[in-house]
Amino acid sequence: MFKRLCLAVIISLVLGCTVWQARQLDESFGPADSAKFDSASAQFIDTSTPKGHPDPASIPTGSSEWLAAERVMETRCVVCHGCLDSPCQLNMSRWDGIARGAIPTSTYDGTRLTAANVTNLIGAPRLASEWRKEGFFSVLNERSDSPEANVKASLLAQMLMLKQQHPGGEEKLLSEDMRLGLNASHECPTIEEFDSYAADFPEGGMPYGLPALSPDENETILQWLKMGAPHPERTLLDPAIVQQQQQWESFFNQDSLKGQLSSRYMYEHLFLAALYFGEREEEPGTLDPAPAHFFRLVRSTTPPGQPVQQIASRRPFDDPGVDRVYYRLVPQESTVLVKTHMPYALNDTRMRHWQNLFLNSDYEVTELPGYDPETASNPFVTFAALPQLARYRFMLEEAHYTISGYIKGPVCRGQVALNVINDYFWVAFADPRFAALAEDADFLAKAREHLRLPAEDESDAGLLAWSKFAKMEQAYLKKKVAVINRVTEKDPINLDYLWKGDGYNKNATLTIFRHDDSASVIKGLAGDSPQTAWVITYPLLERIHYLLVAGFDVYGNVGHQLSTRLYMDFLRMEGEFNFLAFLPSETRVTVRDQWYRGASEDVKDYVHGRYAGLSEDTGMSYESADPLGELYGDWKRFFAPLQPKTLKLAEGQTDITARHLSRLNSIRGGAVRYLPQVTFVRLDSDGGTAQWFTLLRHNAHLNIAQPFNEDARRIPEEDQLMILPGFVGAYPNSLLVLDAATVDNFVDSLTAVNSPEDYERFIDKYGVRRTDPRFWTYSDQMHQSLSSARPLDAGLFDYNRLENR
């Protein structure tokens, strides 16, 4: 009884303070007006120059302050507040995200029983006042407009000033009271609650858990806020860009049934792409500068030539509610983030190629499919009229982008979402010429009912919905295996069944890395001995996209999210089954059992066994007692002409430096268990130049056949390191700096780490912690280096997963 009374008193005091603070603000600056930021404060400006930063002298009053503040916020604020996983859902990567404000709830909730409302900014535009009705509160001043009010009544200003008052940095580690990491429970105070928050969390100012802004940077943002947070209303495009935009909108909106169905297919695969007009080069040093503008392909109720009226929906194949959908290109207004950026080139060559694939081919579309969930969620039904070769080629030729949709899309966030894949595996693709692995159109027409996907149950699926898909997968595998056995009896499987990129396309092979709660994909075959490997066919690639990208709803309930996770088990095992077909028949079970140690026989039967057993042996010959290692080596040689130079550790290094760095690749167990998943390493040479590398930790598992209790299946003694040139990953956990002359000592020191205390001393010597006064300097250098080396791919890293050790 006494405890309840104390709790009631505390709650009353807190509420009383909040009410008092609100009354003080109202008396000083008037009541809040939720519609204050529904319209822009500045005139139109021309942002056709790179990054949208024109000459300040040529733009209206107020816009120069916005552009100056935007530059600071991009590199100091957006690195934590840039996407769906931002603390308090405060998205500062675009103006309407700042105007929308914050909310205490999280986008990601794997336990919700019913689907949540959509809060994604990349949809139909919504006014700030509309977001207030959904629980978002302002971080700007919505009261009367004066320099004093614009600071005192602005949560953003108060958070910045709190950090200036309590910058921290006295200790090398943050207090254990600081809430850090992916699943941290953040305090999300309103301006009325700020005084209480500041008293309870004096070190909780912004940037949270990182060094304070410099006085000049802080003043730049405050000056913009004092002026009332003005901003440009929209981007004006260069006439040459507008012409290309119009040409592509004309292509995407052809009136024929062929054209409409083909464009629907393209849109459902490109809706996450950062589209740009230009060519895509493959190697560093030959890259064109980043384009002035990226575009998004959206659905609109209005045709080209009229203002875009975007159709808001959870999924790209949801019912648009209109008879005719138009596909429009709109400029991407957000700051580019590595974790979500997927550049995709549009040019004359591509337009002609797609015209030939989809529109000039000899086939007929007699009617357009509908948008009911069961049909729209199954691409093998919706797009049955389109040539299978066209569909496969469309995804295959940009396979890195296609797979990135899963890796960089909203599904790929968190340990439970990602423990469906291994930490390090290779991917190759079935050659479109071979029906044995690509499965011909006639087979797919008969099997498509077995290829239904969880999105047919929309976003409120039952917890046992996945069981019906298990039965469908078993039936599909039975039919698929029968086809493969029949075809390979005459033409045994060999490396010619794999797509060799048409002789030039570096999308032919990929390496995928899991970093515990995030993931990355790169072109080429990194390293020599992956944990597993997949061969992806057309039906598998299409289902990966419609399961994890087009069909996944991050706002869906626990049933939808669990069904998606469990269905991906089937797709992973199918890719592994395809790979095992290249091994001798007597080796397939041995390799399967190694990959699935401790898993049930029923699970293993999906990889090779009762559900997926091949009767025919491989057509490849093996000479060693290690066919798996031999096959990996065969892949390296077969795909050698298509391997990017960026995978070569020795590129730009002395032989001695490269040899010392390569020692890191041989470390297993031991020190590896103390390292984080993703570490960026800066190597300073005697000449003053710096090169960047990424040190990855690959966790080993007995198997990854279950979504829960992952720790029970971990085998740390088999964990390994890999060092790669450049930057891999969007969420660095740690930053190291060393001189090239001492790289041998660095490797020795790392190898000797055998306890948390050893690791702390190692970081003392080589690390730049999140509390380090030099942190922002090195952060800027990282981003500059990425922009120089890979301008099309460059964006901001995310610092929400920096460690505190």
What does this structure look like?
The protein is an alpha/beta fold and 805 residues long. It has four domains: 234 residues, no CATH class; 135 residues, no CATH class; 237 residues, no CATH class; 142 residues, no CATH class. The chain is built from 28 helices and 14 strands. The strands form five sheets. The protein has a four-stranded mixed sheet with strand order 9-8-7-10. Strands 13-12-11-14 form a four-stranded mixed sheet, with no helix packed on it. It is globular, with a radius of gyration of 27 Å.
**Count of strand segments:** 14
The overall number of domains is 4
Can you give the mean pLDDT? Answer: 88
Distance linking N and C termini:
42 Å
If helices are DSSP runs of H or I spanning 4 or more residues, what is the number of helices?
28
Helix residue percentage: 25-40%
Which blocks of ≥5 consecutive residues have pLDDT under 50?
7-15, 40-60, 435-439
Numbering strands along the chain, what is their spatial order in the largest sheet? 9-8-7-10
Rg over CA atoms, rounded to whole Å, is 27 Å
Assembly type: single chain
Q: Report the major sheet.
A: 4 strands, mixed
Globally, the shape reads globular
In what range is the share of β-strand residues? 5-15%
Q: What structural class is derived from the secondary structure elements?
A: alpha/beta
